[in-house]
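Notes from the 1:1 (GR / supervisor)

We went over the backlog. Supervisor wanted to see one worked example end to end before approving the batch request, so GR pasted a single chain during the call. The sequence is below; no edits were made to it. Supervisor asked that the structure be written out right there so they could see what the output format looks like.
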Amino acid sequence: MSQPAGPVRLAGLHLKLGVLNELQYRANFWVQLVNSVVALGTGIVAIVVVFSHTDTLGGWSAAELLTVMGVHLAIGGVLKTLVQPNIWRLLEDVQEGTLDYTLTRPADSQLLVSVREVSLWSSVDIFIGIGVVVYALNRMTSDVGAAEVLGFLLALVCGALIIYAIWISAATFAFKAVRIDNLIQLLNGVYEAGCWPVGIYPGWLRGALTFILPLAFAITVPAEIVSGRVNWWWLALGVVVTVIALIGCRLIWRWVSGTTPVQALEIGAAAPKAAIPLPRPDRCRVSPGTRRAVSASGRSYSPSRRRQPTRRSGRARRVAPVRRQSPRAQGQIWQS
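Structure output shown during the call:
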């Protein structure tokens, strides 16, 4: 008996199937490329307009703001590629009542709902965002060492995990409220606030984007690390926030869905198997050369030629086969 696939192999298989499915629609690549270029152009125009009236914005130069925009695009690409497709699939399954097929499988249900869908062509934003960061670094006068690059990569991973934890925690409440489309749209709108450094916002909004919806650790901190503006304690605090977000996301999923992999295995084993209806032996049609038929219980059975009494005379007669009417007769019946 083969062993069940591990979490890494299971996620890899689902991601592979999602990629193969997306490769069937290669025209979507050009559509996504146009959308990404338009979004990038809009952000650049906004920065140009702002710096046409000032030299700095909250202590940030134009090149440093480009790093924020690049991180915002890269994290947004991860969100659109891996997170949002699975979120919408989860909401659809909850509304249609088809999520039970996933919850009762002998595997981690949160892992399954997180890797079922992949929007491959949305990953264009990831590469465009990284390209914007590289371009911004070339325009800066400060040198970027290996420590900054490693810290930047670690901060990017932490930012992607934080965004995943926030979105999956919000989508989990669909088990209680069923329709939470407006909440997901609200989160998408709040994410757009991350295209600017959180330091330029008022104090109350800065605190909300740092500790309630920690977009500061997901977007601003990676940009500050790669541009040499941040204290390394912020990176350590970002790692702590990431761990807390993942643990909270896991607890919320366990509390709302109420199904663990062990419970799913027990449910699948205890579920009654669907019985295949077998024909009754006395209703089996036996050919002239066949005198015996096998009953549902496995015993041999010899059906006899049954005779049904007529209603009028009470005499037994054979049941005549139903004859198909001719098209002409059917037309006469239809006209009458």
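Supervisor's comment: DSSP finds 14 helices and four strands in the chain.
Batch request approved.
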